[in-house]
Amino acid sequence: MKLPSHGPWMDTFGEHGDVVVSSRARLARNLTDFPFVNRADEAQHAEILQFVRSLPLCEQSDWRWIELADLDRRERRLLLERHLVSQEFIERDVPRAVGIGHADRLSVMVNEEDHLRMQALVPGCDLAEAWRLVASVDGRLEQVADLAVHPRWGYLTACPTNVGTAVRFSVMAHLPALRLTNEVERLKRAAIALDVAVRGFYGEGSDSSGEFYQLSNQVTLGLSEVDLLEKFSTEIVPRIVAYERMAREMLLDRNRLGLEDRIHRALGLLRSARLLTTEEAMKNLSRLRLGTVVGLLDEVDLATIHRLFLAVQPAHLLQEHPDLVATAGSSERNGEDVRIRERRASIVRSALA
Amino acid sequence: MKQQCDKCDREAEVHEIDPIQGTAIHLCREHAQAAGFDVPSATPMANVLGGLGSMQVQITTERRGPSACPGCGLEFARFRKTGLLGCPKCYDTFAAQLESIIPRSQNGADAHVGHVAQRSSDIVDRQARRRSILAELERAVAAEQYERAARLRDQLQTLGSEPGESA
Q1: Residue A155, SS3?
Q2: Do the Cβ atoms of B86 and A113 come within 8 Å?
Q3: 3-class SS shares of chain B: helix, strand, coil, % to 5
């Protein structure tokens, strides 16, 4: 059997929506008057933070600043699970804050690796919209701050691999078929040749939870922002999407029954389990998503699956179920408490009932 | 087995880890010199060991250029370890080394062609203007044209100090 080139999921989730779940554009900026974050002292970190917080970066009424120092571990993790901040951002105790606005699509990290890391994250495959959003904040920033720019290297960054435009475009791609056909290693090798970085669900240094991979441009110099956007959107993303679709077709062609069995076993497990870890939930939800987008599973809709991907994350679970918070703190050393795994299983069961 | 140079068939004598890419660089004497490494002239010991065939000879090398940034005190050795520069001025301090490091991570690209912030482009223009006046000033002094040199010095003062310099 061949997959139709245009599946029903596309109507709901836009072009490439069967593979790409979200799109992101990120800009790194540094102020001229301070050393980079790794060489600045605590007083300078505080001064940078205070200065950036005073800038009119966003006019939206929901724009707000959150200081890292005011957050406990669970709240920090919540920001990470929403992809509003990086893993690196929540791990070090430098004076840091994140500005969030535009219905949580926009975030500005202060004192991460660079003075400012500004990103826009939008659902589906829409890098142009992500770029438009982040560029509008950059436009405001450059009116009111002196940014470190070099006549030859462009925008200067702490890590010289980010210089030039200092922009990264990335998509979060769901690649379960490439994983099932053991093609991910080949994808990674091909990505190197295309100057594309392949990372895990939470970016640098994270694993590919739920068979999600973050793919981003490596080159930031020698092409304008618009050319980089164009190249990434029209050359890189379609190739990766086509590769995953090919693997899906191959699975359906060669072993449709086997694939159907895997998908329905995943559904059976999620509908029956009494205890679930995050990893187990993510892995099996990934199978459901695959089943839904290739048309082998019609009883669960994508919106429910997407909602569960977030709801099973540890910090989100505790956010929705504050009665478990005391439990979480006491047992971290011995892995996740049984009551948390029990609650996760029960949430998943009732959503899929 | 002898390690071959990344750029030719000769035996590599310089072995380094690229701090950015985390990959190993192996270069023969000639290509190492071309890439800006200070390769010591052939040492008798290296020749002896080289003759043994099976052993790799590690030559300690040092890149040309200053070892610490006057802007932030960062030493190049530390940059090699962390992959992070310390301040905007580091890009000028370690210009010779970055000249080869940056294009390697950028698919060969060696200059920015995208957007530049309006305020910053003024600064960039000012930096370029400042450099050309400085060069003229040097020539004027060398030619003992002191009146001209004084005029150029006044122009420099009007332009102000370079961003990143302590005012």
Answers
A1: strand
A2: no
A3: 45, 10, 45
Of the candidates A263, A329, A340, A249, the one whose C-alpha atom is nearest the C-alpha of residue A297 is A263
Residues of A in contact with B115 (CB under 8 A): 165, 224-225
| Ranges in chain A, pLDDT < 50 | 1-11
Residues of A in contact with B96 (CB under 8 A): none
- b/e sequence A276-286, b meaning 16+ C-beta within 10 Å: bbbebbbbbbb
User: What pLDDT was estimated at residue A142?
Assistant: 93
pLDDT digits (tens, 9 = 90+) for A73-121: 889 999 999 999 999 999 888 999 999 999 999 999 999 999 999 999 9
Give the whole-angstrom CA distance, residue B16 versus residue A291: 48
Helix (H, G, I), strand (E, B) or coil at A215: strand
- 3-class SS at A4? coil
Query: Crossing angle, helix A338-352 and helix A237-272, to 10 degrees?
Result: 100
| Residue of chain A whose alpha carbon sits nearest to that of B21 | A161
Contacts of B124 in chain A (CB under 8 A): 149-151
> How far, in Å, CA of A41 to CA of A38, rounded?
8
CB-CB contact of A103 with A63 (8 Å): no
Strand A106-110 and strand B24-27: the pairing is unpaired
Q: Which of A53-57, B87-91, B148-152 has the lowest average pLDDT?
A: B148-152
- Cα distances (Å, whole numbers) of residue B20 to A158, A161, A222: 12, 7, 18
Cβ–Cβ contacts within 10 Å for residue A254, how many? 10
Query: CB of A34 within 8 Å of any CB in chain B?
Result: yes
Place of tokens 């000012």: B126
State the Cα angle at A79 between A240 and A290, rounded to 5°.
Answer: 35
Q: Is any Cβ of chain B less than 8 angstroms from the Cβ of A292? A: no
- Which candidate, A202, A173, A36, A34, places its Cα nearest to that of A117? A36
Taking every pair of Cα atoms in chain A, the longest distance, rounded to a whole number of angstroms, is 64
With a cut of 70, say whether residue B61 has pLDDT above it: no
DSSP string, A116-169: EEEEEEEESS-HHHHHHHHHHHHHHHHHHS-B-EETTTEE--SSGGG-BT-EEE
- Scan for tokens 């980079």, then name that residue: A36
The model carries a pTM of 0.77
Q: Does the ipTM surpass 0.90?
A: no
Residue type at A242 in one-letter notation: A
For the record, the structure tokens of B114 come out as 């995208």
Q: Say what the pLDDT of residue B58 is.
A: 38
Residues B112, A32: C-beta atoms closer than 8 Å = no
CB atoms within 10 A of CB A35: 26
Greatest Cα pair distance in chain B = 67
DSSP state of B7: S
Q: What would the pLDDT profile of B8-43 be if each residue is shown by its tens digit?
A: 888 887 776 554 555 667 788 887 776 666 665 544
Q: Would you tell me how many other CB atoms lie within 10 Å of the CB of residue B48?
A: 11
**Nearest chain A CA: its distance from B50 CA (Å):** 34
Residue B100's SS3 state is helix
Looking at every residue in chain B, the average pLDDT score rounds to 73
